[in-house]
Each structure stands twice: as structure tokens, then as C-alpha cells.
Amino acid sequence: MKKILLAFALLIMNLSSAFAAEDSGNMATAVLYTSPVYGYTIPCPKKPNIIPASALYEGAKGEVLIFENEEYFIKHAWVIRVDAFKDEDVPDFNELTGETGAEYLKKMKKNYDDVGLAPIADDNVAFFGVTAKEIEIDSNGDGKPDTIAQTDQQTMEVFFRTKKGGRYHIQLIDNPVLRAESMRDCRLAVTLFKD
Questions:
Q1: How far is it, in rounded angstroms, from Cα 157 to Cα 161?
Q2: Which of 89, 90, 101, 148 has the least CB density, counted as fewest CB within 10 Å?
Q3: CATH code of residue 131
Q4: Total number of domains constituting the chain
Q5: pTM for this structure?
Q6: Could you read off the pLDDT of 98-129 as tens digits, one per residue?
Q7: Rounded Cα gap, residues 173 and 73, in angstroms
Q8: Closest Cα partner for 65 from 37, 97, 29?
Q9: Are residues 125 and 105 in contact, defined by beta-carbon separation less than 8 angstroms?
Q10: Phi, psi (5° rounding) for residue 171?
Q11: Mean pLDDT in the chain?
Q12: 3-state class (DSSP) for residue 55
């Protein structure tokens, strides 16, 4: 009888592990990357190739973790910018209340199709947004939107602070289409990010 119970328990454990691996997408076999330049650690869906963030964005401080590319075309990557924003330019998401949080998200909705504030650790909240395919812009400088800029590509962007005072912006590049699995992997990685 003990052997039957033991075999049943092992079967349940194996099934649970299989479902957990399936739910975690590519992160089931995560590879830890520690930046030799900036010192942060983040789990990745596979071993990344690294280029400086300034290679994509002039003057940007950080790295691009490339998971898939075709020659110079990046298909799947995370751009991790360090010292990504000034404290006075971005509110402390941990201090936003229901009303002030709703106001901030409404303001950010101008540039994003989907926005949200979500916890990434105990007592730490991040801003998540999926960039808009259409953005109203002011082309003549009068302060009023007068034209619409369009793009076929969207990115997911995350802004957060760490307990050590770091200010990070992580951008998920996923071409040609932003996939739910890639967004889930990036979100999970952000919750496990250490600086």
C-alpha cells in the first residue's frame, strides 16, 4: 500500500512540474544574466547576446539583451536602461493612491494602448505599458495634436525603481508581433530583477 501511495505522490509531483513549466513559458529553463558593467542580475529565456543600449538609442546608458535576431534585425530582445529617468520626471509608483494612480494612467494612455501599475516585489510597484500603434503628435509646435503617427511595431515598457535607488526602464522588443508569451516572460523577469 505504501508503494502505491508513493507512486501516486510521484505521479502528482511530475504532473505538477510539467504544468508549472508549461505556465512559465520560456522561463522554465531561465538563464541568469549578470551585467559585468552595471551589476544587475535578471533571469532570461535563454543566453542573450549583449550590445550597449547606446547602439540603439543615442546616449542611452544600459544594455540590449538580444535573444533572437536575423543579421542586424532584432526579433526578440530586452533593452535595459539604467539611470533611465530623473526622480522629478516620474512619480514614485509606490506612493500613488487609487485616484492619483488613475490620473497618472489616464495621462500615460496618450502614448500607450494598454497601461497598468502592478507590484513587482513587496512594497514595490512598476508601470507597465504597451506602446500605441497610433499617437497624436504636435507637428507645428503649437501645443495641440494635429497629426497622427503610425507604427506597425509595438513594445512593452516597464519603468521601476529598486530599493537600492536604481531607476530602470526595460523595453521588450518582439518582432514582428508582440507575443503574450514574451510579455509574460519579461514581466516575470522584472519581478526577479536584482541590482
A1: 14
A2: 89
A3: 3.40.1000
A4: 1
A5: 0.81
A6: 899 999 999 999 889 999 999 999 889 999 99
A7: 11
A8: 37
A9: no
A10: -115, 125
A11: 85
A12: helix
